[in-house]
Design brief:
The chain is 30% helix and 11% strand. The protein has 235 residues and is α+β, with helices and mostly antiparallel strands. The protein has two domains: 111 residues, Ubiquitin-like (UB roll) (Roll); 107 residues, Alpha-Beta Plaits (2-Layer Sandwich), CATH 3.30.70.20. Strands 2-1-5-3-4 form a five-stranded mixed sheet, covered by helices on one side.
Length: 235
């Protein structure tokens, strides 16, 4: 296939994004992790083909004869609009956020020169503030900083096999939370912190209170043993 006018061979790559990156070309992403299933939420990875059609490269398989461009003026314009839309409903307390300087959304906003928020959060269409979930000994969840990339959801269910968090509601009410928006401490969360490792923003932050985490894990183990013990005795 042709990428930016150069012939690039591909073999077993499952999507255009992998071919592009293998060729050493940088493509921005917010929701792609090769070890997780493809969700295609952020659209930052878009590429343009020779007919002017736009594709999400993470969810499009490479084909022989394809000709794509990764950084045309149209793509840059769309990426800037997407970032502005994400920032519109994103808590913008960057200077006091512990992810400041280590936030993918912040990095991409700087890279694409977004220095003003065009769509104001005060518009009727944008959601109200969500409460911060600080119940877990290991994690603080701030849904106001969530960009709905689903990385934490897929990490928790696909890799960790826990499924403590998922998407809820629809449209602009969409949110990521435990079932029935319960506090995280009351779910099956095992305090592994992998959701935080893949979160591109400050929506899920690890706490540094290691003794509290160990105590929580120990208490949870005791609860589980107490629950299964009678059944074990009967058997
Ligand atoms: Fe392709 Fe997010 S990386 S849609």
């Amino acid at each position: 296939m042709m990428i930016n006018g150069e012939r690039v061979p591909f073999t077993n790559e499952k999507n255009i994004l992998d071919v592009v990156r293998k060729a050493g070309i940088d493509l921005p992403t917010l929701c792609y992790y090769s070890e997780l299933s493809v969700y295609g939420a952020c659209r930052m990875c878009i590429v343009e083909d020779h007919r002017g059609s736009i594709h999400a490269s993470c969810s499009t398989p490479p084909k022989n004869g394809m000709e794509i461009w990764t950084n045309t003026p149209t793509l840059q314009k769309h990426r800037r609009t997407l970032l502005r839309l994400l920032l519109a409903s994103h808590c913008r307390e960057c200077t006091t956020c512990s992810k400041n300087g280590n936030c993918k959304l912040q990095d991409l906003s700087k890279r694409f020169g977004i220095d003003e928020v065009r769509f104001d959060k005060s518009e009727k269409a944008f959601k109200d503030e969500y409460k911060i979930d600080d119940s877990s000994p290991s994690i603080t969840r701030n849904p106001n900083k969530c960009i709905h990339c689903g990385d934490c959801v897929r990490m928790c269910s696909e890799t960790q096999n826990v499924g403590a968090i998922d998407f809820a509601l629809r449209g602009y009410n969409l949110m990521v939370c435990p079932a029935f928006d319960m506090p995280l401490a009351e779910t099956e969360c095992v305090n592994c912190g992998q959701c935080s490792a893949v979160c591109p923003t400050g929506a899920i932050i690890i706490k540094n209170d290691v003794p509290a985490v160990w105590k929580a894990i120990h208490d949870k183990k005791k609860r589980v043993v107490a629950q299964v013990a009678p059944a074990v005795r009967v058997a």
